[in-house]
Automatic annotation (TrEMBL):
Matches recorded under InterPro entries: Bact_Cytoskel_RodZ (IPR050400), Cro/C1-type_HTH (IPR001387), Lambda_DNA-bd_dom_sf (IPR010982)
Protein name: Putative DNA-binding protein
Transmembrane segments: 110-132
Organism for this UniProt entry: Wigglesworthia glossinidia endosymbiont of Glossina morsitans morsitans (Yale colony)
Domain HTH cro/C1-type: 19-50
Length: 165
């Protein structure tokens, strides 16, 4: 088999068929692959059958296929074809439009940031005031108790002095 025939064979295969063939060549079952990759067997089965993946996002599916391909040691030529096929299915997003909308978002909501900081400042002031008031009340209670103790001691000492006289 020459190189041209090999390329035709690879491109005629689907991603799932290539992965299934490589797995079978290694003598592994779908269950073993699923256990190693920590995926459900149904996801491995869907990948091999090129079926729809209703509960798996495109990004995760791409990662699962790459991990699977690396596990079964797919040749780099087939892996690059898989990468090309998968990446072509991703929608292209213009970065400049996202950056512009982000700047507009910041301009529109700067008042929200200011209000948030003001609310945080007010809350800190209120907590500080509450702490100071409770500290003063507790300090007054401690002073009152100590004053009473000193007064009792003075009365006892005074009684002792009077009793001796």
């Amino acid at each position: 088999m020459n190189i041209g025939e090999k390329k035709n064979q690879i491109t005629s295969n689907t991603i799932g068929k290539s992965l299934k063939k490589a797995r079978e060549n290694l003598g592994l079952s779908q269950k073993e692959i699923a256990k190693i990759l920590r995926l459900k067997v149904s996801i491995i089965d869907n990948i091999e059958n090129d079926a729809e993946h209703p509960h798996v996002s495109q990004t995760f599916l791409y990662g699962y296929i790459r991990a699977y391909a690396n596990l079964v040691k797919l040749p780099k030529t087939e892996l690059s074809l898989i990468n090309n096929k998968m990446q072509s299915s991703f929608p292209r997003i213009k970065a400049t439009s996202q950056i512009k909308s982000l700047k507009q978002y910041k301009k529109k909501d700067i008042w929200l940031v200011k209000i948030t900081w003001l609310a945080i400042f007010i809350i800190v002031i209120l907590i500080g005031t509450w702490w100071w008031q409770s500290y003063r009340i507790n300090y007054q209670d401690i002073l009152n108790i100590k004053t009473l103790q000193v007064e009792k001691k003075i009365k006892r000492d005074f009684k002792k002095v009077n009793d001796k006289n």
